[in-house]
Amino acid sequence: MKLYVLNGPNLNMLGIREPDIYGRQTLLDLENYVRQVCEREDIQVEIFQSNHEGVLVDIIQSALGNADGIVINPAAYTHTSVAILDALKAVALPAVEVHLSDINQREEFRRISYPAMACMAQVKGLGFAGYEKAILMLKEHIGQKK
Fold first, then answer.
1. Nearest residue to 4 (alpha-carbon basis) of 90, 66, 54
2. What is the pLDDT of residue 25?
């Protein structure tokens, strides 16, 4: 089983950006955490981060035929990107949207998620553990289909 894990804009600033919301751990810490979870679960993983919407769309499209599922934290594109929604729909791979913070407890505009419309689930407010939950959800879902 192979998963793509995508992180959107400003996640490269983890540990610096609003640490009271996102904590002091860095993107490298998050990537190491995801790798450890995937190694433990015998899952291959490729991890990506981009601040550019088109790059994220390209990565989602490249998952077709190369990955069994997608974990995506679209970050600010959550609330604006029909392009990411359409890319997820086009590849039609099982996907789970993840947010470090609980977007429903933040500003009203953050409560809308376009990518979630193409995802089997949304995990929010669990910090790094949300990625683990998403990975395990995909492992179970994909495992049932094989």
1. 66
2. 87
Average pLDDT, the chain: 93
- 32/27 Cα distance (integer angstroms): 9
Give 99's strand partners: 124
pLDDT in tens, 112-121: 899 999 999 9
- Would you call 77 a catalytic residue per the annotation? no
Per domain, the residue ranges of the chain are: 2-145
Q: Which two tokens stand for residue 19?
A: 């640490």
Question: What's the CA gap between 105 and 111, in Å, rounded?
Answer: 8
Looking at 77, 99, 114, 131, which residue is catalytic?
A: 99
Which is catalytic among the residues 22, 33, 79, 141?
22
CATH number of 2-145: 3.40.50.9100
Q: Tell me if residue 4 is catalytic.
A: no
Identify the CA nearest to 88 among candidates 102, 112, 71, 103: 71
Q: What Å distances lie between residue 25 and 75, 129, 136, 142, CA to CA? A: 16, 13, 22, 30
Write phi, then psi, for 36 (nearest 5 degrees): -65, -45
